Recover the amino acids of this structure.
């Protein structure tokens, strides 16, 4: 289970290469690789919000799945939901 969460977190982080700063993403990936998935996940969510990164519905769904698998409070990522026009 832990390996699956780590892999899902790292995969999620990699999805944003080219859309967020590589140094930040490298830091988050390293954090996740060292077992601090929740910290890496929350930092990623904060940066996605801070830099107003557009998320597809699929990307948001993946964020929900990863966050739920770690039992992180939904409020830590719900603000990233794609806006309906």
């Amino acid at each position: 289970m832990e390996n699956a969460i780590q892999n899902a977190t790292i995969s999620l982080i990699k999805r944003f290469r080219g859309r967020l700063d590589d140094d930040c993403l490298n830091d988050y990936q390293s954090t996740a690789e060292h077992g601090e998935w929740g910290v890496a996940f929350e930092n990623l969510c904060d940066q996605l919000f801070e830099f107003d990164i557009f998320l597809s519905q699929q990307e948001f769904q993946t964020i929900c799945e990863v966050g739920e698998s770690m039992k992180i409070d939904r409020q830590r990522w719900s603000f990233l939901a794609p806006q309906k026009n």
